[in-house]
Amino acid sequence: MTRVKICGITNLDDAMAAAELGADALGFVFAPSPRQVRLEQAADIVRRLPPFVSKVGVFVDSDRDEVEATAEDCGLNAVQLHGSESPEFCASLLPRVIKSFRVRDDSVLKMLPQYRVSAYLLDTYHETLKGGTGRSFDWSIAARAREYGPIILSGGLTPENVGPAVVAARPYAVDVSSGVESSPGTKEHDRIRAFIAAAKSAGNKGQSGRRETSQ
Q1: Which of 131, 135, 169 is nearest to 152 (CA)?
Q2: Which domain holds residue 70?
Q3: Residue 147 lies in a domain
Q4: Active-site residue 7, yes or no?
Q5: Residue 193: which of 35, 46, 17, 25 has the closest Cα?
Q6: CA neighbor of 100 nearest in space, from 167, 31, 195
Q7: Considering its fold, how many domains does the chain have in total?
Q8: Which of 61, 123, 138, 175 is catalytic?
Q9: Which of 7, 14, 24, 175 is catalytic?
Q10: Partner of 177 for a Cys bridge, out of 7, 44, 86, 149, CB 3.0 to 4.6 A?
Q11: What is the tens place of the pLDDT at every residue in 145-189?
């Protein structure tokens, strides 16, 4: 089944709604962003969440001590790195590190094998933004990237297009932020519900199709 991460959580109401609607993971942005949260704010939300929901911290070129201290203080299950972090830096944070790559074309496929991480997040290339572009890219590149490890698909996903994206890319997980928002950092719960339903339905169909093909 395709997992779903709702990123850019800034308040308890949205966090609880996402968890109750079936999100597998919630993302908290600690880098400069309209969705940035303070350590104390994120820690308070995490303490109130039900069990079995993964908590992921998003960082951009933070030093290792800061990443590790934030993860410890907030009770994070994984960290997601969106900057120019080196393969060595990422490996030092194993086993709970996700590395993000901005996809302009299939040249990204040459970069993935250099990184030993828990998963690769693929987002759309933007000249200045490190994430949250609201734009999609060629999903066939994500499908090809699966040979290197678990792929988290991001970039321009919405309740309307996440089903076709899952069918095309067959990712381990999908990641959405702006696609379920009314404004940066404020989620629309109906759109979260629709997004999760569409992603998981498409993932189930893909699994069923692969089982039938293998028989």
Answers
A1: 169
A2: 3-210
A3: yes
A4: yes
A5: 17
A6: 31
A7: 1
A8: 123
A9: 7
A10: 7
A11: 999 999 999 999 999 999 999 999 999 999 999 999 999 999 999
